[in-house]
Amino acid sequence: MTGQPTTGPDIPGLKRPLGRLRLGVNIDHVATVRNARGGDVPDPVRAAVLAEAAGADGITAHLREDRRHIRDRDIEALLAQISVPLNFEMAATDEMQAIALRHTPHAVCIVPEKREERTTEGGLEVAQDENRLAHFIAPLRDAGCRVSIFIAADRRQIEAAHRIGAPVIELHTGAYCDAHAEGRTEDRERELARLRDMARFAHELGLEVHAGHGLTYDTVRPVAAFPEVMELNIGHYLIGEAIFSGLDSAIRRMRAEMDAARRAAFGEGAA
């Protein structure tokens, strides 16, 4: 965890960002394209290596129970070939816990998972499953994995994540991004305010705050400007943009948008 925050005039307890805003690149949907036809191309591990060269601070990969995109051998290859941290997204199941404990990636992110969903639809329900989740994450923490919980920007869920001993939360930004895409300005501002308030609240509890889901060039700056947020995880949009501009270009532009937001909010050098 970071040191104690300084006191500022605008944000209670916090004057400047807690550290360089990290970018985690999710390479799941390179595997989606590969699996659509079968075979080995395009290779998500190659995408991860390119993402690292373009400035990604970490790689995120979600090994789903149905293996619809990332496969077990992809996780093994990622750990062997990248030098930045791997963030292993996983459901809270015995199978996934065993895989995580076998590989001990730098980080694990516990996410909800439904077989019929196209993508992760919401945050994990922690408050109603505290006892099980507390016991589930304990071995992962003991093994040295940084454990994060993917949750909605909701005070009740944040408090529950804190109680079970998760050191990190990742706030689901999907509702904010959906409202922006659909032109619902009032909803967009309301969701953004909720994210801002809950990032602040989580930080006050001593949690490290990450955010992600659905972020684009058009929506990333307001979230990147939250001083409590230390990491953004972005995948589907970057892979989509890479079709037109290349992965290197897409990642470098996203990195530039994040850094520009930090500088605009906190001055030169803040990024």
UniProtKB/TrEMBL annotation:
The record's subcellular locations are: Cytoplasm
Residues that bind 3-amino-2-oxopropyl phosphate:
N26, R37, G214, G235, H236
A GO term (biological process) for this protein? pyridoxine biosynthetic process
Function of the protein: Catalyzes the complicated ring closure reaction between the two acyclic compounds 1-deoxy-D-xylulose-5-phosphate (DXP) and 3-amino-2-oxopropyl phosphate (1-amino-acetone-3-phosphate or AAP) to form pyridoxine 5'-phosphate (PNP) and inorganic phosphate.
Q: Where does 1-deoxy-D-xylulose 5-phosphate bind?
A: D28, H29, R64, H69, T119
Q: How does it assemble?
A: Homooctamer; tetramer of dimers.
Which residues does the entry assign to the active site, renumbered to this chain?
A: H62, E89, H213
Q: Which domain of life is it from?
A: Bacteria
Which reaction(s) are listed as its catalytic activity? 3-amino-2-oxopropyl phosphate + 1-deoxy-D-xylulose 5-phosphate = pyridoxine 5'-phosphate + phosphate + 2 H2O + H(+)
What GO CC annotations are associated with the protein? cytosol
Pathway, per UniProt? Cofactor biosynthesis; pyridoxine 5'-phosphate biosynthesis; pyridoxine 5'-phosphate from D-erythrose 4-phosphate: step 5/5
Keywords noted in UniProt? Cytoplasm, Pyridoxine biosynthesis, Transferase
List site positions: Transition state stabilizer: E170
Q: Name one GO molecular function term.
A: pyridoxine 5'-phosphate synthase activity
Q: Please give the family membership noted in the entry.
A: Belongs to the PNP synthase family.
Q: What class of enzyme is it?
A: transferase
Return the EC number: 2.6.99.2
What name is this protein filed under?
A: Pyridoxine 5'-phosphate synthase
